[in-house]
Amino acid sequence: MSLPLTRKDMNTIASPIRLVLLCLALAASGLLQACDPGPSEPAAGFEMPTFSDPLLAEGRSVWMGTCRACHLMGAGGAPAVTDYPNWQPRIAKGLPTLFKSPLHGIKDEDGQYKMPPRGGNERLTDRQIEAAVEYMVASVEFLHQQANRH
After folding, report:
1. pTM for this structure?
2. CATH code of the region 54-149
3. Using CA atoms, how far apart are residues 149 and 123, in angstroms rounded to an integer?
4. What one-character-per-residue DSSP string does 11-50 give?
5. Angle between helices 126-149 and 95-104 (to 10 degrees)
6. Each residue's pLDDT tens digit, 47-101
7. How far is C-alpha 25 from the chain's CA centre?
8. Quick check: 68 and 132 in contact, CB under 8 A?
9. With contact defined as beta carbons under 8 Å apart, do 135 and 119 qualify?
């Protein structure tokens, strides 16, 4: 192609760019659809627990950055951290079982991901995902204990 570019040249270049942008938009909407916003945030002043254990502190950081979007309020069918009755049977299965879902994803009856593998964050290591799960379990139990005190 020589300069200056003709209208035909511009259309030839723009067509693949439009296709890439369309693919990116569709991919993003698919990920966001799995975790639609749902209800509003918890009451003002609600904060996720912090723990002194370094593993749980790392897990909190991962959870706040990746898992919070769906698990804070239960968006897209994800069990909310405040929904102890929903978590109780999951926790009873043990951590190794709980690690599998965020590592490999969860599909619905139609084969579509309700939760994408790695919670949709491919940069996370297995250990970071496990730390986030351990943090979530500790938080669910802590929040349940706090709710029963009142």
Report:
1. 0.71
2. 1.10.760.10
3. 39
4. HHHHHHHHHHHHHHHHHHHHHHHTT---SPPPSTT-----
5. 120
6. 899 999 999 999 999 999 999 999 999 998 899 999 999 999 999 999 999 999 9
7. 18
8. no
9. no
